[in-house]
Design goal:
CATH architecture of one domain: Orthogonal Bundle
Helix content: 40-55%
Largest sheet: 3 strands, antiparallel
CATH topology of one domain: Cytochrome p450-Terp, domain 2
Shape: globular
GO molecular function: acyltransferase activity, acyl groups converted into alkyl on transfer
Order of helices and strands: HEEEHHHHHHHEEHHHHH
Structural class: mainly alpha
CATH class of one domain: Mainly Alpha
Distance between the termini: 63 Å
InterPro entries: Citrate_synthase_sf (IPR036969)
Length: 269
């Protein structure tokens, strides 16, 4: 049976690119915009990143708020799981690039971090909002979630150790300062949060807030994933730098008695 290979034949030894084009010694186009004359000096790096990630050139105040969100996802604390990877890289004298890339991968989690978790939270909120708009009550929407220890598992609506998320207040204040109105998804997210707090002692966290914010700006869950793909990198690099200056093998060293061995017993030879 013959297979039509026309599609691949056209691409043989040829790279097709619809997002940008470097013209050596002249210019670079990004989504049909000149990097040298339309973007450099005219937009921020975060605006450029969002343009590359989604194809959309957002207003500066929107990009500024997303940058603030990045700051809230990049704490220089080596106890945070992705930063532990970066700190260990510094401890073993690995390169900073390897440390940063490893930390980003460690944060690419369904339950934690600012990348895959962002996609899941946005998708969940998008579905819940649509169901609510169609008349489904909040209790029924919540019942569809997976439960653990009697509480629903909804990415973006949880408080570690039952503490309020310290980022919510500055997120809201800066959004107001930047004159960005609270959209329908963010209003619904707070409505959902109030219900969860009343019935399950759960409430919205910074990830839930940011997910609703991105939905209000017209981004899809996949857009949110791309935008937030490296959001933890700054804190990770700080932890790499901190550990790099310390003695080798000093990050979380273990003693033999720290290991609970459950394997076969030693043999007599």
């Amino acid at each position: 049976m013959m297979t039509n290979t026309e599609y691949w034949d056209k691409r043989n030894q040829t790279i097709f690119n619809s997002v940008g084009h470097w013209q050596g010694g002249v210019d670079v186009t990004i989504e049909n915009k000149s990097l040298m004359t339309e973007l450099m000096g005219q937009v921020t790096y975060m605006q450029l990143h969002i343009l590359n990630a989604t194809g959309q050139l957002v207003a500066k105040n929107i990009a500024d708020w997303i940058e603030v969100c990045f700051m809230g996802l990049s704490y220089p604390d080596s106890r945070i799981w992705c930063n532990q990877v970066a700190a260990y890289a510094g401890d073993t004298k690995t390169s900073v690039v390897a440390a940063a890339a490893s930390a980003i991968l460690a944060a690419d989690s369904r339950g934690y971090g600012g990348s895959h978790a962002r996609k899941m939270s946005m998708a969940a909120q998008l579905l819940a909002f649509e169901q609510y708009q169609q008349g489904m009550p909040l209790d029924e929407i919540i019942r569809q979630a997976k439960f653990k220890n009697g509480k629903p598992i909804i990415v973006g609506f949880a408080r570690p150790i039952d503490r309020d998320d310290e980022r919510l207040k500055p997120f809201a204040e800066i959004q107001q300062k930047l004159e960005i109105e609270q959209g329908q998804y963010l209003k619904f997210a707070f409505l959902l949060s109030d219900y969860l707090k009343q019935h399950f002692n759960l409430s919205i966290n910074c990830g839930g807030y940011a997910s609703a914010f991105l939905l209000d700006q017209g981004f899809s869950p996949d857009d949110g994933y791309k935008i937030n793909s490296f959001s933890v990198v700054s804190g990770a690099i700080a932890c790499f730098r901190d550990q790099q200056a310390q003695s080798p093998n000093s990050f979380l060293p273990m003693k033999c008695q720290d290991i609970d061995y459950t394997g076969p017993q030693p043999r007599e030879l």
